């Protein structure tokens, strides 16, 4: 049956995605729907919170530029006209 409006296409797509994620049985996932398999997986694989905090703490300082060194992003020049600045590929 052809759809006659964009709203009908959007509804049909949403219904299909719901079926695909919540009712379709997947053989390699023990015949569980993907959403249920994901819930079971994360219920048994909780991240180690201390390790997660350590990783975030290690990454965070690299993501923040210091106020002493101006930041230049792709295609942007520094106000002083200097080419010095962030050496990261932002």
Describe this structure in words.
The chain is mainly α and 90 residues long. It is built from 3 helices and no strands. The radius of gyration is 24 Å and the shape is elongated.
Proportion in β-strands: under 5%
Structural class: mainly alpha
Helix residue percentage: 40-55%
**N-to-C SSE string, H for helix and E for strand:** HHH
Counting DSSP E segments of at least 2 residues, the number of strands comes to 0
Unreliable runs: none
Please tell me the overall pLDDT. Answer: 75
Number of helices: 3
State Rg: 24 Å
The largest pleated sheet is described as: none
Shape: elongated
How far do the termini sit from each other? Answer: 48 Å
